[in-house]
Write a structure and sequence with these properties.
transport; 83% helix; membrane; transmembrane helix; Growth Hormone, Chain: A; 3 domains; Major facilitator transporter; transmembrane transporter activity
């Protein structure tokens, strides 16, 4: 191997290490916060309505800024945008940890979501830029596995930190890790990767999409008021305008014609959106249920919730091998059915439900989701032409985050309706049980619809 080839190989390996560490830190920082919510709410005297915005604003910001971050990275440098995203994530985490009011924390949580978009919108692009084609699939698989690792350890880490040092430590622990990562990038990761020529960006499309996302989220949160219905109408108008604008644009953010050209592509994306919409409220609500209703400590609650992510991490690689042997549609649909069984058992939960019953339900959901995710992603990527895999990947990530956003927005609506401005305490347990019950029934309905769509999606080119 020549010296140049050796240097390129070293850069590719170190870039993979950097992206993998970022892929762990991102979901770790996002999901661990859910365990700290009861302590945060008590310390800042935040009501249920305000704390329900903690995960929602993070996801909303990620949705709005994901496509702009990718475009900026293509024009000005992927490593640069990735580094800025890490730095902004560390700074916003520090500011959240220093918060003296819930409004302060919510503002910096929104900023943190934008930083997350900069990290995840460019990490895959960096790996693609430096890794040889014959090694790219394995590298991307490792990076994806690191996201699951972050999600797996997040509940336990969040519970451990909260119990030992309080809710602020859940934000602050990321800061020194990110600083060390930035120093490593500066010292060891040489080079920059961007397009040879800067291309124009569809800012109109981005603006319309931001209006759609924001009006949908806030409109749902203030129903059944008149302004809630007005904002929902605005979100529908914005969505239609976005689709029309993208279909006529020379440089669209998303080529909407792809949805008409491939039933497998469009129905697999729809399945993904529904499955993630069903899953994202789970950790948020279970964290509240386990600590307020069952009286568990943050560490104990984190260990219970850990079961789902751990089973997902174990099953995801195995499901890829199953999808190579059988149809992706069959494996993904089996995963949906298992998740539905887990959601059905979990929907029977009440104040007397045992922790063992909850752990068993979460195990089912994790196994099912692990079986679903990889084959469904394979079906999406296998349904498009080779020159459109980049657009397909961005669309797949957007479907996942929109699913997350819609699921949390619906939970916001339920929290506002059942609990409202009241402080989260023992007196609100009946209202919290009603919220959890309604949200789990909603999640079950999403999964049942996803099962039906998955069955009829058709066979992809990669089986």
């Amino acid at each position: 191997m020549s010296e140049s080839a050796t240097e390129k190989s070293a850069v590719a390996k170190f870039a993979l290490i950097i992206v993998c560490l970022g892929s762990i830190i991102g979901p770790l920082g996002m999901a661990s916060v859910n365990i700290a919510i009861p302590d945060l709410a008590a310390d800042l005297q935040a009501n249920a309505k305000m704390v329900s915005w903690l995960p929602t604003l993070f996801i909303l910001s990620s949705v709005i800024f994901m496509l702009p971050a990718g475009k900026l990275a293509d024009n000005y440098g992927r490593k640069r945008v990735y580094a800025y995203g890490l730095a902004l994530n560390a700074f916003s985490s520090f500011m959240c940890g220093m918060g003296t009011s819930i409004e302060w924390v919510l503002f910096w949580r929104f900023v943190q979501g934008g930083a997350s978009a900069m990290i995840f919108g460019t990490g895959v692009a960096i790996i693609t830029s430096v890794t040889p084609a014959h090694k790219r699939g394995a590298a991307l698989g490792i990076a994806a596995a690191c996201i699951y690792v972050g999600l797996t350890v997040a509940p336990a880490v969040g519970g451990w930190l909260t119990e030992l040092w309080g809710w602020r430590s859940v934000f602050l622990f990321q800061v020194p890790i990110v600083i060390a990562l930035l120093v490593l990038m500066k010292m060891r990761l040489s080079g920059e990767w961007k397009n040879a020529e800067k291309t124009r960006y569809d800012w109109w499309g981005t603006g319309i999409f931001a209006v759609f996302s924001s009006s949908l989220v806030y409109g749902l949160s203030i129903l059944p008021s008149l302004w809630g219905f007005v904002l929902l109408a605005l979100s529908v108008i914005s969505l239609v305008s976005f689709v029309l604008h993208q279909s006529r644009s020379r440089r669209p953010l998303i080529r909407v014609q792809m949805f008409r050209e491939s039933r497998v592509f469009s129905m697999s994306l729809s399945t993904s959106l529904l499955m993630y919409a069903s899953n994202v409220p789970l950790i948020f609500l279970l964290s509240l249920y386990l600590q307020y209703v069952k009286g568990l400590s943050p560490l104990q609650a984190g260990q219970v919730i850990l079961v789902q992510a751990l089973s997902m991490a174990i099953m995801a690689p195995m499901s890829g091998k199953l999808a190579d042997r059988f149809q992706s549609r069959l494996v993904a649909t089996l995963g949906c059915v298992i998740v539905a069984c887990g959601m059905l058992t979990l929907s029977l939960m009440n104040t007397e439900t045992s922790i063992t019953f909850i752990v068993g339900s979460l195990l089912l959901i994790g196994v099912g989701f692990g079986l679903f995710s990889t084959p469904n992603n394979n079906a999406i990527m296998g349904a498009v032409q080779l020159h459109e895999v980049g657009v397909a990947s961005a669309t797949m990530n957007l479907a996942r985050t929109i699913g997350n956003l819609f699921g949390m927005s619906m939970v916001n609506l339920m929290v506002h309706y059942y609990i409202g401005d009241a402080q989260l305490n023992q007196e609100q347990i009946p209202a919290l049980i009603q919220t959890v019950d309604m949200a789990l029934n909603m999640s079950l309905a999403f999964v049942v619809v996803a099962c039906g769509i998955s069955v009829f999606r058709g066979k992809s080119r990669i089986a």
